[in-house]
Design goal:
The chain is mainly beta and 350 residues long. Helices cover 10% and strands 44% of the residues.
């Protein structure tokens, strides 16, 4: 039995996504509530460090006296300058909080405090409705529409009108394609070769950029962007597969939500674009078994980006041109040609 990772290129489906905090926190939404992709659905405290104030040493008193002079309790939130302890009298000596913090412990005249950054938040990632609450950790969001997944994302979220910048799936992204009409949109393009195109996209304040593939030398530039980028095929000069391209082309000018999360092969989570509309389709499976008749996407060279149909699974192990042996399948490409591809190079399209 050979199981196949699934990649989704679906014109109509219903999807559910769990949005969970890594630690307990509080849920910010209610069951049935409508959310957008950028809405925070849960948040948790984000501790950044601990420090202590030894009241005995600062005020030059013994432990018992320090305990009497401390005016705060464990769990109190303090602003910078709040009084922690003071001696009173004509020449009163005072101990103040040096920064905003929370008291986590008071023991033997020593106050232990915790500093905090911005709350740790998890966002919906797609427009839809809150279907379930998962205790103190988060929610399940449900939505419907067209779904296209990719192989790489820069872990950002955006939403806007879907705009096609290319007429063919193998076109290179140029400055000419990035016209002012693309400003604020979720734009779809082919292969990106130059940094000038990426910088122009940033100037147009795109809400998202979906590329077939990209020159790997541009990765340093992408790391500094503030809008989501998602790759359908990967790195190098790879045309977008016809299935994904046709969905984008057919649904152009609709609202789209992009969640360019990183591909996690252990969980099956992928970067994805949702083009929402009302649907009653079933939730797609994340894992299936390879079998003849299935439509698959080739994710690695020498046939990267090809879409084909499995004609059959070869028995046992096949000797490959690189000398390795691996389970393989015979595919019929869309132009009718037949190729033999390792199963490890395939994603099942559903």
């Amino acid at each position: 039995m050979t199981y196949a990772p699934v990649i989704h290129y679906l014109k109509q489906t219903t999807i559910r996504r769990s949005r969970l905090l890594p630690v307990p926190g509080r849920v910010l939404v209610s069951p049935g509530q409508k959310v957008s992709g950028s809405d925070a659905v849960a948040e948790a405290i984000n501790p950044t460090g601990h420090f202590f104030m030894d009241v005995r040493s600062i005020l030059k008193v013994d432990t018992d006296t320090a305990g009497e002079l401390i005016q705060r309790k464990k769990g109190e939130h303090l602003a910078k300058g709040d009084i922690l302890a003071e001696t009173g009298g004509e020449f009163s000596r005072v101990v103040r909080a040096p920064i905003d913090c929370e008291i986590t412990e008071i023991n033997s005249g020593v106050i232990i405090m915790e500093t905090r950054g911005e709350p740790l938040q998890v966002r919906a990632g797609l427009p839809g409705f809150v279907r379930e609450l998962n205790g103190e950790f988060g929610v399940v969001v449900e939505s419907g529409g067209a779904l296209v997944q990719g192989v790489w994302g820069n872990d950002l979220i955006g939403a806007g009108l879907l705009v096609m910048l290319c007429e063919k799936p193998d076109e290179e992204l140029t400055l000419r394609q990035l016209e002012a009409s693309a400003r604020g949109s979720v734009a779809v393009a082919g292969y990106c070769l130059t940094g000038e195109a990426i910088r122009m996209a940033a100037e147009l304040e795109l809400q998202g950029l979906i590329l077939s593939s990209i020159n790997p030398e541009l990765m340093g530039l992408i790391d500094n962007l503030h809008f989501p980028i998602m790759l359908i095929e990967g790195f190098g000069k790879i045309p977008m597969n016809s299935t994904a391209f046709s969905i984008f082309h057919e649904l152009e000018k609709r609202d789209a939500a992009i969640h360019a999360r990183q591909w996690d092969q252990t969980t099956g989570d992928r970067p994805e674009v949702l083009i929402p509309f009302q649907t009653q389709a079933l939730q797609p499976p994340e894992v299936d078994e390879f079998a003849p008749g299935q439509i698959v996407h080739v994710k690695l060279p020498p046939f990267s980006g090809e879409v084909g149909t499995i004609l059959g699974l070869n028995a046992g192990m096949t000797q490959l041109s690189n000398g390795l042996r691996a389970p393989t399948a015979v595919l019929r490409k869309q132009n009718g040609d037949q190729i033999t591809v390792p199963l490890a190079n395939l994603d099942l399209i559903m």
